[in-house]
Amino acid sequence: MTQNGSYPLWWKDAVIYQVYPRSFADSDGDGIGDLPGIIEHMPYLEKLGIDALWISPCFQSPQGDAGYDISDYRKIDPLFGTVEDYEALIKEAHDHGLRVIADMVPNHTSDQHAWFKEAMASDPGSAARERYLFRDGKGKGGNEPPNNWQSVFGGIAWTREPERKDGKPRQWYLHLFDSCQPDLNWDNPEVRTEFESVLRFWLDRGVDGFRIDVAHGLIKEKGLPPYTERATMVGEDDDKTPSDAPMWDRDGVHDIYRSWHKLLASYPGDRMLVAEAWVKPLSRLARYVRPDEMQQTFNFDYLLCRWNAAKYREIITDSLEAMHEVGAITAWVMSNHDSVRHASRLGLKDAGARPQGIDAAHEQPNEALGLRRARAVIFMTLGLPGSVTLYQGEELGLPDHTTLDKKYRQDPAFFRTNGEEIGRDGCRIPMPWTADGPSLGFNENGELWLPQPQQYKEYAVSTEENDPHSTLALYRTLLNQRKNSRLGRGTLEWAEPRDNVVEFTNGDVRVVLNCGDEPVSLPPGEILAASLEIEQDGVLPANAAVWISEGKG
Ligand code: GLC
C-alpha cells in the first residue's frame, strides 16, 4: 500500500469524483464557481472517501460550450483562476490523498484559439488551414456544405467562412459540435505534436491523468463520406451503433492513444487516461483500453440502462467480460454533466431513460421515487469491481432542475435545435452547501449563473452532514466499506437470478438490489448498510438495496 492508502495502479479501483467547476463553489461572487472554491472544500471531498477528482475544463475559453471550447490549453480562464491556482489545487488535493484528473479536449478548439484565427486569415490550402477541416463547398459558387453531416448539437456540421478578400468562393469548416468548436485535423502531425506538448505542460504541473473528451471522434473517415443520421453521441438504440458513423470510432484514433500512453508512462507515478467514448458494441469500446492505450473508458451502457434487474445483470456481465478480454477494468458511471441526473431519470415513468433535458412542459420525475432508487442503485455501483465515477451532488441525492425557465438556458444544443432539445443546464446547477443564504452557500452574495430550484435547500450539505440517514451519510458509509473490503479489486459472483433482483457477491459483501415494486426476501446475514430502514427481518422492500456481510449468516 502507498502512503495515501491506495494500492499500485490506483485507477484500477478508484472512485473518481467529477467536479464541474462552474457549479461547485464560487469564492469571488461572480456567480460562477472557481478553483479557490474547490480548494476550500477539499476537506469535504476527503471526508467523502473518494480517491480522485476529475476537474471539468477550466482552461482559457470564451465559454461557448461551458469551457469545452478552449482558446488556450496552457492557461486557466480568469473566471476560474490562474495556473498557480491550478497548481495549488493539485498540491492541496495531493495533501488530502486525492489525485487530480484534468479534462483534455482534443477533438476541437475554440474558434478564438490562435490557430483558428490564423486559419481564418489564411488562404485555402495553407498550412494554417491544414490544422482544421476546411473544405470547398458544393454546388454553384460552393454555396452548399461539403457534405451532409449534422452536428451533435443539431443543425448542419459546417459553417462557412464569412468573407474572402480575394473574392474567391468562401470555404467551409467542420464542427461536430457548435460552430464555435472547429474540429482539428488529427492527420496533421503538427496537431499531434502540439497536444503532446500540452499534455506535458500539465503533467509537469503534477496532474495524475486526463479525461479525454470525445475520444472516439478525433479521426474522420477519409473523404468525409456522406452520413444521413445526426451525429449523436448516444448509442441508446442497440441496433444503431455510432461505430457505423464516419466521424466516430475510426481505427486511426488508437495510434494517438498509444503515443499518449507512452508519454504518460515516461512520467513517475501511475498516470492515467480515461476515455469519453460513446462507442458500441463493447468489443469496440474495449479497444480504447488495450494494455498500451488508455486505462479506463466510461461505461455508458451502464448509465443508459433502464431500471431493470435483468438488463443490469446483462450489462454488468457483458461489460466485465469485454474489458477483461483486454485486461482492463470497467469504469462504472451513472451521471455526469451531459445527462439528466440519475435521481431524476429513475423517477420517470420509463425509469432510467435519458431525455435530452427536462423542462416544465415535460413529464416531471417523481422526486421521492427517483431519490429512493438513486439511494438503492449506488449499492450496486459501489459494490462492483472496477472503478466508479461520481458526479458532484449525487452524494446528496440531487435531482435535476426540471422546470428551469427558457430564459436561463445556456447549452448550445438548446439554441441549435431551436429549443426542441432542452439541453444539459438542468444537471449543471450550482451546489447547495447550506440550507440558507441567497445561493445556498454557493457563494456569499447570491449571484448564480443558473438559478437553483426551490427544493435544493432540502439537499444542502449542512443539513445532510448532521443527518445519519441522509444520502451523504449513506455515500460515506458505502465508500468507506468499499475501500475496507477492497471491493474495487474484487470478483463478482452472481447469485441465482430472481425476478427484479440484482444480487451478487463481491468478497465479503453480498449486494442485493430490488428493482421491483414488490418486496423480496433477503438471504441471511448481517446487514452492513441499507438504502432505507429494513422494518421486517429478511424482507427487502421495493426499490431498495442492502449490503450484507457474507459468511456471518
Ligand atoms: C463532451 C463533453 C460535453 C461537450 C462535448 C463537446 O461530450 O462532455 O460537455 O459539450 O464533448 O466538447
UniProtKB/TrEMBL annotation:
Single GO term (MF): hydrolase activity, acting on glycosyl bonds
Keyword Hydrolase found: yes
Domain Glycosyl hydrolase family 13 catalytic: residue ranges: 18-428
CDD domains documented for this protein: AmyAc_OligoGlu_TS
Key words, A-Z: Glycosidase, Hydrolase
InterPro entries for this protein: GH (IPR017853), GH13_cat_dom (IPR006047), O16G_dom_2 (IPR045857)
PANTHER family hit by this protein: ALPHA-AMYLASE FAMILY MEMBER, NEUTRAL AND BASIC AMINO ACID TRANSPORT PROTEIN RBAT
Protein name: Glycosidase
